[in-house]
TrEMBL record:
<feature type="domain" description="C1q">
    <location>
        <begin position="139"/>
        <end position="283"/>
    </location>
</feature>
<dbReference type="InterPro" id="IPR050822">
    <property type="entry name" value="Cerebellin_Synaptic_Org"/>
</dbReference>
<keyword id="KW-0964">Secreted</keyword>
<protein>
    <recommendedName>
        <fullName>C1q domain-containing protein</fullName>
    </recommendedName>
</protein>
<dbReference type="InterPro" id="IPR008983">
    <property type="entry name" value="Tumour_necrosis_fac-like_dom"/>
</dbReference>
<dbReference type="Pfam" id="PF00386">
    <property type="entry name" value="C1q"/>
</dbReference>
<keyword id="KW-0732">Signal</keyword>
<dbReference type="InterPro" id="IPR001073">
    <property type="entry name" value="C1q_dom"/>
</dbReference>
<dbReference type="GO" id="GO:0005576">
    <property type="term" value="C:extracellular region"/>
</dbReference>
<keyword id="KW-0175">Coiled coil</keyword>
<feature type="coiled-coil region">
    <location>
        <begin position="15"/>
        <end position="70"/>
    </location>
</feature>
Length: 283
């Protein structure tokens, strides 16, 4: 009997020791769970910080691109302005030299005749405008003007909404017209005038359709003016001109295209006229 009691006592002691170990293990598990939760929270905070840094990086890149683009455009505009001013200065010097040479016809120098020479020269340089190269126009700082012509022959195959490219440039003060794309880009805000001429030939081009086309001038894809020409019989060549005055903001684009209906017949004929596109700033 005594032996059995001692055995039971030993089993009770072992059970109590096991319970104590279980309690310790449960405590360790709780500690580990707490540490895991802490690590998960730190990981979430790290991910949030990474996202915030990525957002700030994208914002910085966007600002940098905007700043570089703005400075680049400003530099290009300044270069165009300087080039225009240099061109005008050369024209002015040439005109002044020619006028000075012309005044030599007054004969030997004397105060009265010298005063007449000076008055004539001052009058011509200040205000008189003539067509040609005898006298240059009044100088306009950063002048913007262009005129271009289409040099190739084309027909109805151009289709609708075709942007016309006036490839041969007669004049491009300020360099704002692009003869590769046919587009004028306003270098500054202001009032601009635009003129375009179209031609249709009274020739059916092998079918029953004689030359006919409608065109429109657009500012940032918005129609601002329209010109149409239509021939009905053989040799009934026709020409039309469109003209608009518009208020532009810096960076606005202007171009001429065909209307949705497209065109028919032969449209380009040099003997009766040509396709031209011109524009200039007036205010």
């Amino acid at each position: 009997m005594l032996g059995r009691l001692e055995h039971l006592h030993a089993e009770v002691q072992r059970l109590r020791a096991s319970e104590a170990k279980v309690t310790d293990l449960q405590s360790e598990v709780k500690t580990l769970k707490s540490e895991v939760q802490t690590l998960e929270l730190r990981l979430q905070n790290s991910e949030s910080n990474v996202q915030s840094l990525e957002s700030r990086l994208r914002s910085s890149e966007s600002k940098l691109q905007s700043l570089l683009g703005s400075r680049l455009q400003g530099s290009e505009a300044k270069i165009q302005t300087l080039a225009s001013n240099v061109q005008y200065s050369k024209l002015e010097n040439k005109a002044l030299q020619k006028e000075l040479n012309n005044t030599k016809s007054f004969g030997p120098s004397n105060p009265k005749k010298d005063n007449v020479k000076k008055n004539i020269l001052d009058t011509k340089i200040r205000g008189k405008r003539l067509i040609g190269s005898d006298i240059i126009p009044q100088l306009v700082p950063s002048a913007t003007a262009f005129s271009a012509v289409i040099t190739s022959k084309f027909d109805r195959n151009i289709g609708g909404l075709h942007v016309f490219v006036y490839d041969h440039v007669e004049c491009n003060l300020g360099g704002s017209y692009n003869n590769i794309t046919g587009i004028f880009t306003a270098p500054r805000s202001g009032v601009f005038a635009f003129l375009w001429t179209i031609v249709a030939e009274g020739n059916s081009n092998g079918d029953s359709n004689f030359g006919e086309i409608g065109t429109e001038l657009l500012v940032n894809s918005q129609p601002k003016g329209r010109a149409n020409t239509d021939t009905e019989v053989a040799s009934d060549d026709d020409q039309a001109t469109g003209f608009v005055i518009v208020q532009l903001n810096q960076g606005d684009v202007v171009y001429v295209r065909s209307v949705k209906g497209g065109a028919q017949g032969v449209l380009q004929k040099y003997t009766q006229g040509g396709w031209t596109f011109s524009g200039w700033q007036i205010a």
